[in-house]
Design goal:
globular, about 90 residues, PaREP1 domain containing protein, mainly alpha, about 65% helix, 4 helices
């Protein structure tokens, strides 16, 4: 697939990943399963936190403070690095 204004072609799967709405991520992650599904849940919570910030009452966000969100963000980074190392040793 050729993207307007670019000389290079892009694989269709890469194009779909880039333009896929966030609301579809959970469905795709469930198909893949395993660690990807679990990390997607965590990433979606962090994404929600990005817009709502911490919420001590946990109505708009599952994170009561920035520290709890930070721990999940660090976990996401660490797990993604591990997954990438296993793909590209």
């Amino acid at each position: 697939m050729r993207i307007r204004g670019m000389k290079e072609r892009v694989d269709r799967v890469d194009w779909v990943i880039v333009v896929m709405p966030t609301s579809y991520l959970k469905d795709v992650a469930m198909v893949i399963g395993g660690k990807v599904d679990l990390l997607t849940d965590k990433a979606l919570w962090v994404h929600q936190y990005q817009y709502n910030g911490p919420d001590p009452e946990r109505v708009l966000s599952p994170y009561k403070d920035d520290g709890s969100a930070r721990r999940d963000i660090e976990t996401l980074i660490r797990e993604m690095e591990e997954m990438l190392r296993s793909i590209n040793p």
